Amino acid sequence: MRSLRSLVVLAFCLFSIPGPEAQTKKLTATEAKDHIGDRAKVCGKLVGTHYAKPEDEYKGLRVCVTGKITSYRGRPEIVATERGQIEIQK
Predict the structure, then answer these.
(1) Which pLDDT band, with edges at 50, 70 and 90, does 34 fall under?
(2) 29 — phi, psi (to 5°)?
């Protein structure tokens, strides 16, 4: 009986821990500069890319990109290595 109770408590604990999506902050592009090193979803108009093969596909669109915010030449950026990190806004 005791092991069953432990199992139920463990299951409750596992289901009450928020997943990575629940812990991701949603920021505007302007707010991103104050969150270097944080994992977040940053939304705004795409102003530039570097080393991107599908650059023209996203140019000028409003997008949300999820990932770790880093700094590149003094500006905040998120390096998207997978298409799933980029959401086109409507």
Answers:
(1) very high
(2) -60, -35
Q: Is residue 14 part of a domain?
A: no
Q: How far apart are CA 71 and CA 78, in angstroms?
A: 8
Evaluate whether residue 58 is within a structural domain. Answer: yes
Question: What are the beta bridge partners of residue 86?
Answer: 65
In angstroms, how far is the first alpha carbon of the chain from the final one?
Answer: 54
- The 8-class DSSP code of residue 17 comes to S
The answer to whether position 11 is within a domain reads no
* pLDDT-based confidence at residue 53 (cuts at 50, 70, 90): low
Give whole-number Cα distances, 36 to 24, 67, 79, in Å: 14, 11, 13
Burial class (CB in 10 A: 0-12, 13-18, 19+), 8: exposed
Which positions ≥6 away from 10 have C-beta within 8 Å? none
59: pLDDT strictly greater than 80: no
Which position has the token pair 């997978």?
82
